[in-house]
Amino acid sequence: MTISTSAPNGWLPLEDALHNALSHVQPVVEAEAVMVGDALHRVVSEDVVACVNVPPADNSAMDGFALYASDSQSALPLQVVDTQLAGMPLREVKLEKGQAVRIMTGALVPNGADCVVMQENTTRTDTDVVINKPAMPGENIRRAGGDIATGATVITAGTQLTASHLVLLASMGIASVQVFRKLRVGIIATGDELKTAGETLASGQIYESNRTGTRALLAAEPVEITDFGIVADDKTALSEVFTNAAHTQDLVVSSGGVSVGDADFVKELVASQGDIGFWKIAIKPGKPFAFGRLGNAVFCGVPGNPVSAFVTTQQLVLPIIKRMVGAASEQVIKPLTIKATLTTSLRRRAGRKEFVRAHMQKNAYGDYDVVPLAKQSSGVMTTVTQANCYIILPAECSEIPEGNSVTIQPFSLLETQ
């Protein structure tokens, strides 16, 4: 799987790294039936075809009166002969000219009626109704199959189900849906200096946080996570964990140990049990990212620094997972990017695409301004929590003056304050 690059330093541009990684992973093929209520975020394995019309019959879109549209052209009162509520069966008797039926939203349209006049456009007496505004045939009537027709493909294979998809499925009376099985993902952290939250730190030790971050970033994906815990910088111990993960997982995400330190054994062990496709990508933060295979599992090695691990999981691991869970190619994660005006100048060393933590907000004209945060170290996670977007700087860029337009990647689609 060795992937070559023409870059003199051997670092792959992010776009090339992602393209190559996606071309070397395969989606799961096993499928299962799950209840619609449990199918959020799952990926459908086959087209979903409507087995009923939605709505199943002509019904009223308004509270009002069902009648002949031609009768609405006259100021003569119409005899109100019945009331039709939602859920009631239809009268067998056909509506006659000069008659109207009081009707509620969602109720079946009486036989013969070809429009519904909203009650605000009528004047009602005890037995009659006067139409104050003429109506057109079909007005305020939701036709049978107007939303979904029997036999129509409503969800295509490879779609990752959202809340709106579940509502759609339920509206057709579908109780279960065929989806690809969940992806088995193993997460590992390596390093003698790492301790689990709640434990007491000795001199030189730090709390491990990357497994928590990975689990949180993957929460909206159809995955089953196995946490292999913290593994010391010991070849034998790490090899045993890797061997176990290689035989039980579809994807292994390991943090730390992929740099060039004397105790960084991850790259060496992965190469011995599988192979490394590429190592080091031209982004900041996150250069020491490794991709390859660990036995039968796909392997992603993210850096140990928390921000670097966070960024590479967002930009590389998540798209890889999207492909592996069976999401259609066009659905592979493409984060939203927009333009914003830089409110302070930026200077940096060119050479790597950079994700600068920043804060965006709307200005008085309804456009977005963005200001980079002062601290950009890959170990300073507080700047990620203080930021609400990344400024994306191209690799060749070394300086951007204040007032220029830049590309930003918002953390959320919600309105930013």
Automatic annotation (TrEMBL):
Pathway it works in: Cofactor biosynthesis; molybdopterin biosynthesis
EC number(s) on file: 2.10.1.1
Xref: PROSITE patterns: MOCF_BIOSYNTHESIS_2
Residue ranges annotated for the MoaB/Mog domain, each copy included: 186-323
Cellular component annotations (GO), alphabetically ordered: cytosol
SUPFAM superfamilies: MoeA C-terminal domain-like, MoeA N-terminal region -like, Molybdenum cofactor biosynthesis proteins
Cofactor(s) in the UniProt record: Mg(2+)
Keyword Transmembrane helix appears in the UniProt entry: no
NCBIfam families reported for this sequence: Glp_gephyrin (NF045515), molyb_syn (TIGR00177)
Protein name per UniProt: Molybdopterin molybdenumtransferase
Organism, scientific name: Alteromonas confluentis
